[in-house]
Amino acid sequence: MKFSNDNPLLPGLPKPLPRRMVLIFTCTGVALMVMLSAIPVYNAVLLMQDANFTFWKGRFVPGLIFGLCVSVIISYAAVMMTLFERAPPDEQNYRTLLSIAQLFVAILGLVLVIMSYALSMQADTAYVDLMYGCPGQTTKLPAGIDRDPWMQRLAKPWSLAGSAKTSEQAYRLFEYSEVLHTIRATPACANQTSVEHCPGYKRAPPYTTFLKAMESDFKCSGFCFKPLTTAQHDATSDRGAPPTLFTKSAHVATCEHILARDMQNFAGDMSVQAFYQGISLLAIAIAMAGTRLVGVRIGQACR
User: Fold this and answer.
1) pLDDT tens, position by position, 197-232
2) Separation between Cα atoms, residue 128 and residue 158, nearest integer Å
3) Could you tell me if 265 and 273 are in contact, meaning their C-beta atoms sit under 8 angstroms apart?
4) Residue 158 and residue 27: Cα distance in Å, rounded?
5) Which of 109, 116, 127, 178 holds its CA 20 to 30 A away from the CA of 228?
6) Cα-only R_g, the chain
7) Whose CA is closest to 183, among 259, 234, 246?
8) Which candidate, 161, 144, 122, 58, places its Cα nearest to that of 270?
9) 250-276 burial by CB neighbour count: b if 16+ within 10 A, else e?
């Protein structure tokens, strides 16, 4: 380290890093944090725009992931600028820069690990409720749920191996689906391109909008559909799907299992990805700390 003797009253005082170097290190560090946060932020935005996930679980958890990742980046830049504006000159060195970078990498890794647990919980419970919790269904969960091994371990604390339950959201969606399919089966509506043009239809968001979105996005029809009349029973497909509500397409599958697997394969996989990225960042931070400690010990031994 270079020392400045320009001030006769403070001989031997360490010379602070030039402002240009501070800006370079700060911008480089911010760019690195942005790259490390890019995938979690992108996944959070996708979840907040996904109709299936937001209908069942809302936008709180992906919004929190987005906010925390952005906060880590802003906090890193603020700490770096504050350090070199107010810290004593002897603390303005490369070791301090590495310490700050190590700290924020560890914080980002810890955020991703914690939020992956919350996201996995939401995806897993929604999967189980949709797959086995249709209104009136009494099916017990099988001993080995069709999950990734990581999901199997993560689900144990929540006791998901019992009976699935029907959420209020699912029951309301089932009610609206049954009413609309009853309207669709009437002679006045059978030839219409959409149930929206039929007598008796009334738009009721978010239920009717979600029913329309799932027909369009997943190419399915009906939610936990149960034919109430002989005409409805005769119109169902071999896999139990009723005629579509909002188009004249002939979809052959009902939507509840498709929605469940989408939750598992979309939000569930994102939670696993966030977990392993968080573990990797924590490992990098620990390796940085270990390298610095070894360097200090070697320096002490050489003196």
Assistant:
1) 999 899 999 999 999 999 999 999 889 877 655 555
2) 12
3) no
4) 43
5) 127
6) 28
7) 246
8) 122
9) ebebbbbbbbbbbbbebbbebbbbbbe
Contacts of 106 (CB under 8 A, 6+ apart): 281, 282, 285, 286
- 5, pLDDT greater than 60: no
User: Which residue type, as a one-letter code, is found at position 261?
Assistant: R
Partners of 140 in beta bridges: 163
Nearest to 119 by CA among 78, 73, 65: 65
> What are the two backbone dihedrals, phi and then psi, of residue 24, each rounded to the nearest 5 degrees?
-65, -45
Lowest mean pLDDT among 120-124, 151-155, 269-273: 151-155
Predicted pLDDT of residue 92: 67
* Identity of the amino acid at 57: K
Question: What CA dihedral angle connects 97, 103, 108 and 109, to 10 degrees?
Answer: 120
pTM for the model: 0.79
Task: Return the axis-axis angle of helices 94-132 and 60-86, rounded to nearest 10°.
Answer: 170
Q: Where are the alpha helices (DSSP H) in the chain?
A: 19-49, 51-57, 60-86, 94-132, 149-155, 168-184, 187-190, 207-218, 230-235, 256-262, 269-302
Specify the length of the chain in residues.
303
148's tokens: 């990734």
Alpha-carbon 97 to chain mean position: 31
Describe the crossing of helices 207-218 and 168-184 by its angle, rounded to 10 degrees.
80
Residues in CB range of 269: below 8 A, 6 or more apart: 148
Residues 6+ apart with CB under 8 A from 5: 11, 12
DSSP secondary-structure letter at 134?
-
Q: Tens digits of per-residue pLDDT, 127-163?
A: 988 888 887 554 554 444 444 444 443 443 334 434 4
